[in-house]
Design a protein that fits this description.
Helix 5 packs parallel to helix 14 (582-600) and helix 20 (698-710) packs across helix 21. By secondary structure, this protein is α+β, with helices and mostly antiparallel strands. The radius of gyration is 27 Å and the shape is globular. The chain is built from 26 helices and 28 strands. The strands form 7 sheets. It has an 8-stranded mixed β-sheet with strand order 5-4-7-2-1-10-13-12. The chain has a 5-stranded mixed β-sheet with strand order 15-16-17-19-18, covered by helices on one side. A 4-stranded antiparallel β-sheet has the order 8-9-14-11, with no helix packed on it. Keywords: Aminopeptidase, Hydrolase, Metal-binding, Metalloprotease, Protease, Zinc. It comes from Streptomyces crystallinus. Residues 511-821 form the ERAP1-like C-terminal domain. Its EC number is 3.4.11.2. GO terms for molecular function: aminopeptidase activity.
Amino acid sequence: MSVLTRDEAQTRARLLDVQRYEIELDLTTGEETFDSQTVIHFTAHAAGDTFVEVKPATLRSVSLDGQPLDPAALAGNRLALTGLSEGAHELRVEAEMSYSHTGEGLHRFTDPADGETYLYTQLFMEDVQRVFAAFDQPDLKAVFDLTVTAPENWTVLANGITEHQGGGRWKAATTPLLSTYFVALAAGPWHSVTTEHAGLPFGLHCRRSLAPYLDADADELFEITRQCFDRYHEKFDEPYPFDSYDQAFVPEFNAGAMENPGLVTFRDEFVYRSAVTDTERQTRAMVVAHEMAHMWFGDLVTLRWWDDIWLNESFAEYMGYQTLTEATRFTDTWVDFGIARKAWGYDADQRPSTHPVAPDPDAVPDTASAMLNFDGISYAKGASALRQLVAWMGEKDFLAGINTHFKRHKFGNATLADFIDNLASATDRDVHAWADKWLRTTGVDTLTPVVGEAEGGWTLAVEQDGDRPHRIAVGAYDIEPASPGRLVLRERFEIDVPGAPLTRPGARPALVLLNDGDLSYAKVRLDAESWQTALRTLSGLPDPLARAVVWNAARDMVRDGQLPPAAYLEAARAHLPYESDLAVVQGVLGFASAHVADRYLADGARPAALALLGELTRDLIRRTEDGDNPGLRLTAVRHFVDCAAQPHTIQEWLADGSVPGGPELDPELRWRILNRLAVLGATTEAEIAAELARDPSATGEEGAARCRAALPDPSAKAAAWTAMFEGDTLSNYLFTATAQGFWQPEQADLVREYVAAFYVDAVPLADRRGPAIAEAAGRHAFPHFAVDAEAVALGEACLSRDDLLPALRRKLTDQVDDLRRALAVRDA
């Protein structure tokens, strides 16, 4: 299939103006395919040639202005339209289209819990062509009329309000001007909860088997939705631009969510079947806020070409966290951003695949290259840059510029240059120079304090590795006299970096913390005395965001070979038992287990690391016996299970159905325990099958696949490998679950032969099954725990090939670089 190039898109946009799509889909024709009929009304500004895109199972007929075209002329995904005359035209396309099981196009899912079938679209980038014929590029906006024929007992959701006309036929309200990739459909016997707010219908939708869980959280979800909706109307001058606001929680969704105008789709793991922490509820709320921000930035005003995708995501990411903090009960969202989300950006920015937040247009020459930029840079680094921009220019001026942007470009397309010009119109600051330093460059600056003493005071200079301008806060902390394990804030002051050294009054503080408040994007180091203070008193820092900055500094030092991994574990052992912020606990435990214990320590040191983490999590379990902090207790229980080196305790929990003192084992905990028992060789296929009979849900099927792949048995490994790389029948979620179970540090010898096999089998798999499975294979089926020079050499040899699908090449580039880093950490 041909990918669309930027040059081709520009040429087609100069030639065409697209007014309207009339789309009819028949979803009653079978389990493998559906019928698609499209009429496109468009105008050619001059005589010329162009093409329309479609990816059919069978192209039945095509006509242009009433004259038939030869369906056999379809070349890949392109049908040439030659000899167009200047003026209005009508293109009709009838096709049989294939359902997807990879989360691309029109995805079809049958719920194993009750046999009901659900469909939903994910049309991002090029996948609209899997559903209907289109001039598929973001700057050819049009209005859309959608009619759907579905089984009689189904409900059909779309971008606009839908009306059932009888006989299973549904018609959606005509949309405003939209880019093709925003057209959305969700069809099935949905369970729906509805309300009204600000004169608009609001809806929540999920599979029927999840109905009780959605009902339990509907009030919370609607409250978050209303609070964010109202807060955005306080911030933005333009009103919400669509006729309804539906949020559909759909199965086997690849992303967190998709900002389809009026019909946001979410992965249905956000409908919680099992107990979750308040931080996880906060994450769900942030995704709600993030997707709603897209209604303005992304949907109302859309990028012209994919080089500006970062603008959509960075803006929504920043607004999601900020609006959640301002408008909801989740007032510490930036702590979670700092300890978890930001690390995603830091890591991505230090790999060979790094790119500017706003890449040069020539670096995004086609849709295949654009797809690779959905990463920690476009989300976390971009949001961090915008947060720094707001701190630098002031929120009032920032919002004034944003509202100018919306006013000038509503229902149209805009570029980075438009965005920067509109911000610059609202401030005397040199936003263009700021953008050049922050948005057009790569890498992470490192800020190191140089602290000294002066007569009557102390001095601070900041050494900077990098050249971005930073506006940061500096925290000066003293030991609390009555409690040597605690720190008190003496003062917090703002500085510009680069800047001249300064002198502050009083004795030298016990701890000097750069970027206190985490308003900038940079790696932070501590001077020697401050680091020693932190080792003694980290849990005694009064502000959780300050603690997150210090933990991030320690994390970066480990990754850069400047702090032994074992020292990080010792710091976690010393301070997490006293940590009060759940996001910090989750972030530190996650890095300590998944990175330090599993990859950064030599194989021989791993048992001791697991023992330390087991002691730490047991302490947290003891600390929460009074029931006052169920989220912390749940986090501790999860990590205790994951690091169990012996099966006895967790076997007892599984047999009893609860942890002593709580919690009771819900499906998530039962599958987690069973998975760990599988890794340890302490369960059987029969016990896995029995658990699946107990929980015959989609999540249960994924849990069983994960457990079976984790069994330390050659035949189990062979069966899992065949299912992933040869069968081509696993859905995206079952593929991921199988891959997650397959590689285990405890089983290095058992799976050693598969390390080389991965590089042989992943390449044809990606070619056969496309970008979504290629990304899943590179992320989850990669041999993460083979940290040795031979594995690096295998990866480098594979990357030297010129036939890798871009999505797979990008993942392998990152994974092999992570292996190099892990080796360097071990050798440091």
